[in-house]
Design brief:
Blueprint: H1 3-22, E1 35-39, E2 51-54, E3 57-61, E4 67-71, E5 82-84, E6 89-91, E7 98-99, E8 105-107, E9 116-122, E10 125-129
Antiparallel strand pairs: 1-10, 2-3, 3-4, 4-9, 5-6, 6-7, 7-8, 9-10
Length: about 130
């Protein structure tokens, strides 16, 4: 194998490897699927109005006993939001943005909704997923 053939073969191999790793054309977004479970028999989610953050998702138990979940990072500058049971909404402590229980902006400066996740309760196990 001469130098030209070697470079051509190695170059093709590198391109093929990169294409295999990111998908042809690298058009896929780098998203991490949310799908986890929590034990709600103890801790914050055992009480109405309680909440916790897990895997970048804030999960809350409303005063009526429903479970809701949205992305924890505020869409303004990324501060973790908090759940307010009295307003049944999410509040950002940094600059005061608020989001309803579905993650939609109700007060700026944030202007993008938080991603809402599905919840499913089976016994004391709560599944949170996209
Ligand atoms: S980081 Fe949430 S309002 Fe600014």
């Amino acid at each position: 194998m001469n130098r030209k053939d070697f470079i051509a073969n190695v170059g093709f191999g590198a391109v093929a490897l990169l294409a295999a790793q990111c998908g042809i054309g690298c058009n896929k977004q780098n998203t991490t699927a949310v799908d986890f479970t929590l034990d709600v028999s103890t801790g914050a989610l055992s009480q109405s109005g309680g909440y916790l953050i897990n895997n970048g998702v804030i999960v809350a138990k409303t005063l009526t006993g429903d479970f809701i979940a949205v992305t924890a990072a505020c869409s303004h500058e990324g501060t973790s939001v908090r759940y307010s049971s009295s307003g049944n909404n999410f509040v950002c402590p940094s600059h005061g943005a608020t989001f309803n229980s579905s993650g939609s902006v109700t007060k700026g400066p944030a202007n993008t909704s938080l991603t809402q996740y599905k919840t499913a309760l089976s016994g004391n196990t709560l599944r949170v997923y996209a």
